Amino acid sequence: MSESNGPAAAETISSEDADGCGPRQWRTTALLSLFLLPSTWHLTVITFNTVSPPFKCVSSPNITSCRADNETFCTKWRFDVTQSNTIISEWDLICENEYLISLAKLAFLLGVGLGGIISGILSDRLGRRKILTIALTAQILISTTIAFAPTLLVYNVLRFALGWSCVSVIITSFVLCMESVADRTMAGILFHVTVPLGYLTLAGLAFLLRNWRHLQLAITFPTLLLYGVIYVVPESPQWLRSDASQAQPLALVRTPRMRTVSALIWLLWLVVYIGYFGIVLNMGSIAGDIYLNTLFAGLMELVAIILSLPLLQKIGRRFTFICVLAAGGLCSACAGALIASTFSTVLVVLARSCLSIAYVGLPLYTSELFPTVVRNIGVGFSNFFAGLALVLVSHLWELAALAEGLPLFAVGALAALGAASVLFLPETLNKKLQDTVEEFEAEAKRSEG
Q1: Could you say which DSSP state residue 65 is in?
Q2: What is the pLDDT of residues 243-293, one digit of tens each?
Q3: What percent of the chain has pLDDT over 90?
Q4: Integer angstrom CA distances of residue 207 from 79, 200, 287
Q5: Are 161 and 37 a contacting pair, CB within 8 Å?
Q6: Checking phi first, is residue 133 left (phi over 0); if not, alpha (psi -120 to 50) or beta?
Q7: 3-state SS record for 306-341
Q8: Is residue 251 a contact partner of residue 374, using CB atoms and an 8 Å limit?
């Protein structure tokens, strides 16, 4: 460990934080929140990359659709790329090849699931800033290469690697933020403001740039500016004070209370991510224009994030999660009953808004539950279950083949399960962050006693 990152540096930084959230801490939160912007773009750009332009048969121009049995009347199609050029038109992903779309979505999500665990372990051992720098560099290089992918196989492999790097950037920057500020609630919520901004800006870029390769480059180049953020943001003071040798994944299940909290929080990540991204990544399946739906949902989500601040800060984590998950589940179930109507679209957006509060509050709650020595590992393993949820989400809308509203009913049921699981988790509002597993167990015993 270098001299600048030793105990003296940690003491200096922590003394700056002692009096609450000053200008330096607000600046740290604002700067670190920028890392969410490109990662949000990369996650949701697949929604626009898999929009199918109008097409017709080359030999018989009057044929403009596949047969109901998924066989085609012709062997070669021509796409109207003047409207949009996506991976659908690029690699002919229609009719008998339509199943490949799910694989394209799945590749990124698998990378997210596996990347969270590895980056969590490395970050707790080597430091937040070092892993953040490595992950950001990988994200930029991989994202740029995707724009020149010659085949769908190469595209999928690169998307897998991109998912790995994106989740590493997100987890590490968030934990660094939580460990560098005094007002965790304020910072934890404001950190996520760039998520709806990502949706809004991506909707605008996708509307203007109808070629998926051009869109890919457009969401990559701004990321270069984030190197300047890493340069000015200091290392986590809590990580500098901790013993990195204790960063062992088994610590998450070593003691009774850690096992209980770990299991419940991982279940919560599973159901929240299935519900939230089940709606986010399937906006094209909701009635209405995909660009307007994304724009409107992004605006609603920005409002929801702002509303989540007083909720989490005044009434606590547990009660907020119970309320928003129950309300989001109810809206989703009702939308499933009224599927394909305008009112159903409104209910879906409301459900997404409620679930977005759980989505932005979940990393905050998780980071407060796990002690410093395994905080990044804990969040990393949580993201594994988030990745598993995203894999399941890629198939969620296939349930519509059984009943049109079934996917939204499933989201509603899972949200209710998540609300029930929170009943068994402790409140962390205004509680000191624990540094070791021993401190965590001692605090649990005091709370129960």
Answers
A1: S
A2: 666 667 787 887 888 888 899 999 999 999 898 888 776 655 555 566 676
A3: 23
A4: 18, 11, 18
A5: no
A6: alpha
A7: HHHHHHHHHHCHHHHHHHHHHHHHHHHHHHHHCCCC
A8: yes
Any idea of the CA torsion for 244, 245, 247, 253, to the nearest 10 degrees?
-150
CB 210 within 8 A of CB 49: no
Q: Rounded to whole angstroms, how far apart are CA atoms 212 and 181?
A: 39
Cβ–Cβ under 8 Å, residues 172 and 32:
no
Q: How far apart are CA 250 and CA 18, in angstroms?
A: 32
Closest CA to 84 of 211, 204, 202, 207: 211
Measured in Å, how far apart are the chain's first and last C-alpha atoms?
Answer: 40
pTM: 0.75
Which residue, chain included where needed, has tokens 């800033």?
Answer: 129
Stated as kind and residue range, the H or E segment containing 57 is strand 55-57
Task: Report helix, strand and coil shares of the chain as percent, to nearest 5.
Answer: 75, 0, 25
**Structure confidence by residue, pLDDT tens digits, 159-211:** 999 999 998 999 889 888 888 887 888 888 888 888 888 888 898 898 888 89
Of the listed ranges 69-78, 121-130, 334-343, the one predicted with least confidence: 69-78
Kindly tell me if the per-residue pLDDT of 449 is higher than 70.
no
Chain centre distance of CA 122:
20
Residue 2 identity: S
d(CA 237, CA 15): 10
**Encoded amino acid at 379, one letter:** V
